[in-house]
Amino acid sequence: MASVADATAAVAPADTARSALQSDLQFVLTSALAFGHSSRAFPGCWACVGSGSGGILAELGVGTLDWDYSADTLAREAKQAPPISAAGVVDHSNESLPSPPPPQPSAHWNAQGLTALSAPLSEDEGSNPCPSGALTLWDAASLTKVVCTTPCALMLAERGLLDLDAPVQRYLPEWTGPNKEQVTVRMLLTHCAGLPAHLELWKLTATPAEARELVLRRVELERPPRSAAVYSDLGLILVGEILRRVMPKGEQVFDAFCRAHLFEPLGMHRSGFCPPSAVRQRTAPTEQCSWRKRLLRGEVHDENAAHLGGVATHAGLFTTGHDLARFAQMMLSGGVAPASASDGTAGARILSPASIAMAAALGGGEKAFPPVSGSNRALGFEKPTATNSAGAELASPAFASTAFGHTGFTGTSLWLLPSAAGAGVEECQAAAAASLPDGFFFILLSNRVCPRRPSGEEGPRKIHAVRRDLHNRAIQVLRKHGLLAANTQGGAASAGAS
User: Which domains are delineated in the chain?
Assistant: First the structure.
């Protein structure tokens, strides 16, 4: 019979290996985020690397929630510098628009979570604290699509309330026009329906109801369905209307449904839409908005989402790093919520393994048609490419078919590398010995649009460089520790490749 000493001796190597792994990953975070902050990619950032079963292995916050600008300075700069359009042209078109009030705070927040986020800043934190994984609230932007909308669609599909391969017109009969009868719900989620990339609903309509009516009845397809993949928020807004109509009676409010079926069972108690003003001091500010004529802090950055009331299916989620890590663990653990000794959420099934596989698959599990040419779209998520935020390592042949993730315009990203991707038998055994068998996740949360979004490609270029550097270096550390197979298939050799 084994003694206690034998058992302790057996555990010690795994503990030592885990400690060494965490130390190396911490160095990666320190290097990558220091580079981002010194290049002024963001005022503040929090990032982590974790595993499905082990949770967060290393995390780091750098900078402060806001640049050290006074309100007077921001107001003066806002008057002196008109906004810059995506094309790099000075945009004066917002100056005559009426400034809308902030959205009403949502009632669908966890009371305990709000209490924690509302706690006064301590003397050590100061008035402009360093980002925290537990207590900093971030505007997740388009991560809303994959953290909220896609899982809700998959849940409803599992219940038999939604058929992803049904024509959109089954659920939205008023959505008519040339070729629209060919469009399925899955095509909306994989961005190949043929819709325009973007419309400024907040300029074109006066009310949320008018905005929804425009998308439902007046927006025509720009190309035949499945002829190309073009990223479109409009498709996700349509998905939101479909979800509302198929949700069970009494549950047809999107943020309430997310809280009941995602946030609460996952232990994401500090996540929601339209946060109350009490948590403003712990919320990372985004942009000095020329339309709303104020620095946005605790109200959604995306103009269309704001126009729709702050609760939308393409943007609007506010979350913390630790909450997002719990979501990542669930996605890497076959749809089961991670353990939590504090609130008893261990073991709650959120999604089926089949739904997770569908979300991660190129084409979103589409079986009726071949993949859309040139598309890197999964179901809501995207797949790694040589040019997106994933980085060369995730885009290498070893991992490109299994990894999946997404970004948010405000400077957020989540990438997932499922169990044993690219690993051989020995590497899988090493992962099991270190209690890390369920794959890895990489989260970066920043407010790179503060106080104004950089013009042209400068903003995305800087934050993409930080993301890629972080992913590349972290994967090389995981490989060094025997948790991923040696890179023999042409992946990146340089830690800083982007």
Answer: 12-143+253-480 (3.40.710), 162-246 (1.20.58)
Angle between helix 208-217 and helix 233-246 axes, rounded to 10 deg: 100
Q: 131: which DSSP letter?
A: P
Model confidence pLDDT, tens digit, residues 277-294: 999 999 999 999 999 999
* H or E element at residue 288: strand 288-289
Calculate the alpha carbon distances from 485 to 28, 421, 476 in Å: 19, 8, 10
φ/ψ of residue 255, rounded to 5: -70, -30
What pLDDT, in 10s, does the model give residues 198-218? 999 999 999 999 999 999 999
Reading the block at residue 47, the tokens are: 């990032």
Q: Strand ranges (DSSP E) for 34-193?
A: 44-51, 55-63, 138-139
| Burial annotation 53-89 (CB, 10 A radius, 16+ → b, else e) | bbbbbbbbbbbbbbbebeeeebeeebeeeebbeeeee
Q: Report residue 426 as tokens.
A: 């020995």
Q: Specify the DSSP class assigned to residue 207.
A: S
CB 374 within 8 A of CB 228: yes
DSSP letters spanning 403-471: -EEEEETTTEEEEEE-TTTT--HHHHHHHHHTT--S-EEEEEEE-TTSSSPPSTTHHHHHHHHHHHHHH
Instruction: Give pLDDT, residue 92.
Output: 41
Q: CB of 151 within 8 A of CB of 159? A: no
8-state DSSP, 336: B
Give the C-alpha separation, 248 to 242, whole Å. Answer: 12
Alpha-carbon gap, residue 365 to 378, rounded angstroms: 8
* Selection from 283, 270, 274, 26 nearest residue 131 by Cα: 283
74 and 288 Cβ atoms separated by less than 8 Å: yes
